[in-house]
Predict the 3D structure of the following.
Amino acid sequence: MTQRIAPHLFSAGIFFCLIGLIIYPEESLDASSKGLELWWTIIFPSLLPFFILADLLPRSNWTYVLGRILEPVMRPVFNVSGQGALVLLLGFSSGFPVGAKLSVQLYNDGKISLADAQRLVCFTNGASPIFIMGAIAAGMLHTPSIGLLLLLAHYLGNILIGMLAGRMISDKKDKPAKRPFKTLSKETSFGGVLQTAVATSVQQLLIIGGLIIFFSVISTLASKFQLFNFPLLILNKLSEWMHLSNEWTTGFLLGVLEISNGTAHVAQYENDFMIKCVIVLAIISFGGFCIHAQIIACIHQTDIKYSPFFLFRLLHMVVSPVIFILFVYLIKSFPFSLPLLGLEVSKSTVQSWPAALLEWFITYGPFISIGAIMTALAIMIKQLNDNKKAWR
């Protein structure tokens, strides 16, 4: 039944987008420009180094040594290979979708099993410290001091998800990767490997940029066509039942599609500050379908499934806000610790380091993006010329 309906839903979605672009060209262009600006100034320059590292690190002999050292920690806690420590570190520090990319890379290189890759994808993908502490806490909520608490709740939620995924995802149908174990041998040219890593990373980030722009337009068209009316009705009833203002509902639905747009909408409303933090945390913990599409783009040529990632994101959407609320009540019991952990929520204008770093990316990000794209094009042209010479 699902296989029969899915193609029709896909076709309907395409025609919906086409009609929307024709009826609302100005709004679509504006949404597309905002998505492009987000990718151009922040996403591309901030993720490119991590994407290149994600390509290079699995080929390093030290990765295997590090995995052996951390095996006694990773296996009991998350039921994954010690190689997963590298995925956890890069995934948490760089944000979506680096955890998925590195998990796929390690699996394809034969360093982790399919079950390990599936588990790692479920909990090593989250929002980066720059996004949470810079863009959200300092930029949107205008309260840099709350950033640390949001970050702790988000990461602890992911760690709990990882512990749960390690027990719930079975090893019964597990199988190793089809490709052989690869390392950077003496015969391998480091320059050649680096060129390939840069070119591949830029190509993948171009795909991510297209997805960000596409979902920015989709969220705008959905609002224009009033497709949110029925979900909004349900959420508004839920707000009334909980005796809350319903200002957050539109931003929440936008966040389900694309997180930066949704969190910005929630942050601008005059809700209770802690309620805003809870809603924002729920949005970034789910990730938005734009992020989900990026994860699918990373795993689509492997045996790694999307459905466990989706289900654990739904769970994370509940777990992280609960952890945040528990932190709030715990810290309120110790008033002397309020300034330390970020519950002094007066709208501060203090510039935190994530906000300063975010400002730096906004200023210099486009230049980094241009340079990286030009470098990748030069590498790809060189590789094409080398291939032509080889065929001759």
